[in-house]
Amino acid sequence: MRQVSGHTARRRFGQNFLVAPGVIRGIVDAIAPRRDDRMVEIGPGLGALTEPLLACLDHLHVVEIDRDLIARLRRRFPADRLSIHEGDALAFDFGSLGAPLRIVGNLPYNISTPLLFHLAGFAERIGDMHFMLQKEVVDRMAAAPGSGDFGRLSVMLQYRFHVECLFPVPPEAFDPAPKVDSAIVRLIPRAAAERTARDEEVLARVVAAAFSQRRKMLRNTLREMIPADGLTALGIAPTARAEDLAVADFVALANSLS
Ligand code: SAM
Prior knowledge:
With about 260 residues, this protein is an alpha/beta fold.
């Protein structure tokens, strides 16, 4: 087990701590905190981002699951500047912190996809989000239609957020070093007027069905939901595959059902 600053890094909590000062500075610059921002950091860990963020902010919230790290954070930062929420970010009510909320974090990679779906549920209350993630996940989040990376995650996130990959981060920036490359991604919620799905649950079901077998044609994957001539009526070729459609096509499909 790897020791980092006297802490045993726990793999089950996805603990890869940032240790490269240049990368840390680049992330804080990209976030550009303003003193009165309402901000929450997910997984502060040993405080690599927490400390420089707090230097720019009046107050910061953090959500951390590891009790040993929580004890260290309590000793290091004054309670009136840092509010520590102990527990699982996947179950945390981000709506309870008020709005507009800025969310940041070097996320535990093992829970990044479910966490992104959890956060998407709070899109209305979010100002923006900046995350360190596995580069492969960022590529899927930001993928354009027609690319092999374009999938359920791309559609569901791009429907709610503008997604922008900011810069890559190599494994050497962390201790312990992960086996994969990472990247910083920025997500900014779209205005309500841009989100035109009548029922977002229907949209989620259509997208899940369309990508359930991504090599198959839509007339097969969506057979239970919409007949081939219904696809044609929407200007969508029944022989197209899910990865050929734009986000707006999925919205049109969902709206034809709801
Ligand atoms: N922010 C630190 C840094 O950049 O060095 C630590 C990042 S480390 C990749 C991920 C952090 O998230 C760890 O502190 C870990 O304990 C915490 N974590 C893991 N799973 C979590 C969960 N479900 N809820 C909240 N925090 C979690």
